[in-house]
Every structure is written in structure tokens, then in C-alpha cells.
Amino acid sequence: MNNEHQRLYALTEVILNQMQACGGAISFQNWMQAALYQPKLGYYESEEIFGQEGDFITASAMGSWLALGFAESIHKSWLALGSPNVWTLIEQGGGSGDLLCNTLATLKELGLSPTQTIAVETSAQLRQRQQENFQKYGLNITQCATLQDIKPVVCAIMFSNELPDAFPVQAFVWQNKRKIERGVDWDGEKFVWVELGEIGSKKNATETTDIAETIQAAWPEGYISEFNPHLATWQRDISAIFEKGIVLTVDYGYTQKEYYRPQRIEGTLMGHHKHQVVDDVLKLSPGVCDITAHIDFSALKHAGERVGLEAIAYTTQGAWLAQSAQVQQHIQKLAEHPDVDSIAQITQAKRLMLPNGMGESFKLLIQSKGISKENSLSLVTPAFDRLHTL
Length: 390
What we know:
- The protein is built from 13 helices and 16 strands.
- The protein is of the alpha/beta class.
- A hairpin with a 2-residue loop joins strand 6 (170-175) and strand 7 (178-186).
């Protein structure tokens, strides 16, 4: 048995022990937590995750486009914060660290460098990869496992790409006008879906979902979906870090009305394995594939507002990158020298920006804390802003 098989076997044993301790089935949320994040055993501790040899390719691996967009938005955020002499840049869930390295390089070209930079990453293996990357580029970056490890600062700018979509979700099925939590059990050979108690009931006192009743009323019987209960905790932890700050969140998702439309009868929960979509995330052994769900940006906005993070802009990734001066200049530079490499880079840009690629499904939410509305307006492009839809 090789190391990878040993990891997967040990992970399954951990989950089975959880079930034994609980006397049977566990919530899918707990199953997903173990499958992705179990120390030394979860999916994010596996050897191959990103890139052609892994299970999926993130936007940060498609050239420098995302770094150009983030660097320009960080520079605008710094100006909106009053051009502070002392400020902290935070990235969370940065994988191998490529996006942070490229963003810092672009910021330096813009004449801006943070006083300190912090990379937050749960996975020990990914933190090691990041450290090697940072050392290669001669960067002095503080690494943390969680947001709670960060000592609070006065002024900060935080950004993330494809982070909250990997937070463990609470799965449910709509039965008799009630949300019944979906759990996971073991049938002697494999993990299987089972139904637990009603969400929010005394018998099943898990966190209740924050979905409008008017939306729920339109669901057909047997409607399956999920809810991300970790958004509220995430926003609270972010808000506790700084007195003044701006948060840039890029991920794939919808408004709540679109997320829970009646026709989306099986939710957005899915896996990725060797660049193929896995419809049933229990089909493969835990730890084999990535597990993800889209973001309810309405819920994220409301969770932020409850802890002092005001949503100031919401737009598509395509619109965000297309209006970036840094992106436009780079496209012009490539167009002036049309060789194989420049054509490949422009093709990547199209995939990131066009509606039939990632341009429409991925969104950018900008939040602020402790700055005036007048200053925050510099981060909003009215023609492309969709904040009113949330």
C-alpha cells in the first residue's frame, strides 16, 4: 500500500470512528470537513491538487491576469483608506502562493508595498509549498493557519480567490415544506446519503439557514440544496482583524434568488477529480476529490453587515478585469507582439473574462470597514455594479 492509499484508508477510518462515537450517521457538513481538512489526511494534504497533474486549474494559474486585477484593486483600496503609511496585506487560501507572489510583484511596479504581508492557509502541506515559493522570490511573508492567529492591526486589505466555496456546507432536502438535513452513513462497503432531522428543530439543533421564506415557498417537493454556515464565522473573524480595512472576495456564485431558484433541483454541490466533474461527492472515497459549492453572495453580504463589513460593490469577474487599466495595458502589449506565447496568454484572458468562460459565473464582492462612503465610492464602477441585486 503506497502513501496515498494509506492516507485515504486512514481518513476513512477517522470518519468511521466519528460515526461510531455519534452512534451512526453524521452530518454531511462534518463529513466534508474531514474529507477536505482532516490534519495530515484530508484532500488538501494530498500531493497533487492544482494544475494539469491535479484535479482542477484555478484562475490564478492562468497567467498574470488575476494578479493584475487584484494589484490594481488593492492599490485603489489603499487610496480609499487614506494612503496609510502602515498597512497589512492579507491573502487567505492562496494554494501554492503564486497569486500572492505575482500580486506583490505588480504592486511593487505600481510603487506600493505593504508594511507586512500575511498568508493564511489551513493545509500544512500547502503552507510548506508557499514557504518554498516565498523564499524563491525573496519575500518576507508571515504564515498563519487561521485568521484567529493574526494579531489585530489598525489598517488592512484582505483578498482571496476561490476560498469560501470550499467551506463545509450543510446539505438539505425539502420535504413537506421543511428543510431536512442530509447526512452520511456507512452501509458496510461505502458512504451513502441518509436523512437526519429537520434543520433548526430541537432534535437537530444545527445552525438554521438564512434563506428567504418567499424563495423556499417556490421549491418543489424533494428539492435538494445546501447552505454555507461558515460564512458568518468567516466574516466575524475578518472583521476582528482590523479597525479600518477593505476585503476583496472573488469566487463563483449567485445572488440568493438565483442560487435557490426552483429549477436548480440538485443544488450546486459537486466534486472535481482529474479535471472531471463529480456529481455525487460520496461516489469516490473521501480525500480523493475536491468538494465545493457555489457562494450565496446575498448571504455573504448580510453576514458581513452584521459584523461591520459594509458591501460597497458587487460585479462579475469579467467586468472587473475588463475595466482594469493594468489588464488593458497588458493586452495591448501582447497584441503588439503576436507570437505563440502572447496568443496563449490572450486566450487565457478570454477564458477569465468572457461570459461563456469564467467571466460571468465568477463574481467580485468588495466590503469595507471604518471608511467613509465618499472614499469607498472610488472602488465602484456604477455601469458594472450589481450590488442592488443582492
